[in-house]
Predict the 3D structure of the following.
Amino acid sequence: MAQDYVYQERPRRRGRKVLVALVVLLLVLVGLLVVADRVAAGVAERAIADQVRQQVARQDAQSSPPEVEVGGFPFLTQVLDGRYERITIRLREVRGSVQGDAVSLPTLDVDARNVQASLDTLRSGRGDVIAETVAGTGTISYDSLAKLLDRPGLTLGEQGGKLAVTAPVDILGQRLTVTGTADITVREQGQVALRFNDLNAEGLPNVPLARTLLNNYAQGISVDVPLPDLPFQLAVREVRPLPEGLAVTADARNVPINAVG
């Protein structure tokens, strides 16, 4: 009986060893597939980044080299399908090549969804990479905006969800501190209108001339701010003040995010 027990135990141990080996082999194969998937995604990201760089140049915009990330997993199934869930692109120091007075965007984050791109297009660089929807978000720093207004001592910021201004002003021989907020309107051709219609100054002399001078100052800093030409046919839809700066939101539909081959 003891001998039979030994014979029964050995096959069981060998079976467990085979099972453990199969599990380890499966894990190794899965790991290799994940690595291969990420390597392929990296190759595609570099190819798209190069084409985006050419596209930015063709649209008369300038920026640092784009950073591209292809979303969705697994990547290889998206390659076979020719459709990608999401491609995110980050551009830094976006500025127009023609508008010398335009403010620059320190960063422009572009989120492209439902992107169509054949394997041949990614490999050869010929053909279009078309995004069904493209959304762009960027922030204009208050320092760069204040520099454009060119008023000594003027500072801008966010207050209660509005663009707030503080500036020293000489009125009738008195040095006063002017405060107030601006109305922001998005205009055509990539301009943002700032209108400072509600300025006040503590200690303002109660005479019509003092109020006239204050209104003249408000008109002087009420300007149309030219934005840089945005790539990917992005059109500005909204500009709103945030603590870190003016947040710019833009979008477009059915546009190429690469250079046309």
Q: What stands out?
A: The first helix runs from residue 2 to 58. The mean pLDDT is 78. The first strand starts at residue 61 and ends at 62.
